[in-house]
Amino acid sequence: MTNQPFLQEVENDSGLNNLKSTQDWLKENKIFIELKLEEHGAIIFKDLPVKTAEDFDQFVSTFNYETFTYEESLSNAVRINKTDKVFTANEAPREVEIFLHHEMAQTPTYPKNIFFFCKSASETGGETPLCRSDQLYEALLKADKALVESFEKFGVIYNSIMSSGDELISGQGRSWQKTLGVSSKNDAEEKLSKLGYSWNWIEDDNLSVTTKTLQATKELGNGQKSFFNQVIAASLGWKKNSENQIAPVRFGNGEEIKESYIELLSELAQSLTLLRSWQDHDILLIDNYRVMHGRKPFAGNKNREVLVSLTN
What we know:
With 312 residues, the protein is an alpha+beta fold. Helices cover 28% and strands 27% of the residues. Helix 1 links the parallel strand 2 and strand 3 (42-45). It is globular, with a radius of gyration of 19 Å.
C-alpha cells in the first residue's frame, strides 16, 4: 500500500489473476480495508482482474454490505442500471462538471459507502475530485465559526426542478416519475407529502420540489464532524426555478446562503481537493460520510464509462 494525501492505494502485489482469488483476498483483508477506509476516507484498488460490470458486482458483493439501490433512491441523477446493484455514475453530457457533493445528502436517505469502477477511462479530463469533508469542516471552523454555527443551527433546505421525463443535459435530470417511483401527479404529491416536502407544478408538467430541513454537518465519532451536504454542488451546478428564482439551497430557516459564503466554501474545498485521474479497471471505494466527490468534464474519442455501486 502507498499513501497519497488521504487516498490509500492498494496494488495487486499478490498477483491476483482471477475473480475467485480476488474475492478470497478481499475476505481475508476486509477488516484491514475497513480500518484503512475509516482512517483515510478513500481507497483505490489497482490492477485487479475486474473487467466487467458483472465482475464489479461480485467484487462489491464480497464485502457483504447492504445494497443501496438506485431504483429505490431519491437520487436526481440520470443513471443506467447494469446489474441489480451496479449502474452508471451519471449520464450528464461530457462537457458538464459535477461539483463536489456527498452522495444523496440532499435527501433523507443516503449510502455509507460508494464503490466506483472505471470500466473505460476518457482520453482527457474526466477526473474525480475528492475532498475530505472532516478537514473542510475544521478549515471552515477556523475561517468563519459563525457560519459553521449557522449551518449547524438551521440546517439546509434544497429546491430542485424535476422534469417530466429524463433530461440528459444536466447532472440532475432524472424525471419526477423515476425519482419518486410514481406514474401520476396524484401519486407524486402523496409521496412528497409523506417525505415532508413542499412542491408546485410548473410549466410543461415539471415539478419544483423543496425538501424539509436536512442536516448540514454529520457526527463521525471521536468528536469529529464532516461538512455533510450538497451546498457546493447545488449552488454551483443546479438550475434555479425560472418562475421565482428560488435558490437551489438555503439555510433551513429560509435565509439565503450568501454568495460570499459559497465562494469561501469553494475556495477551502478546492485547497483540500485531490484530483484523481482514472485508469482502466481502477476501483475506488470512498466513505460517503467523510469524503465528497465530483466529476470533471472530459473529451476524446475513447468513451468514459465509470460505474458505481452504493452500500450501507
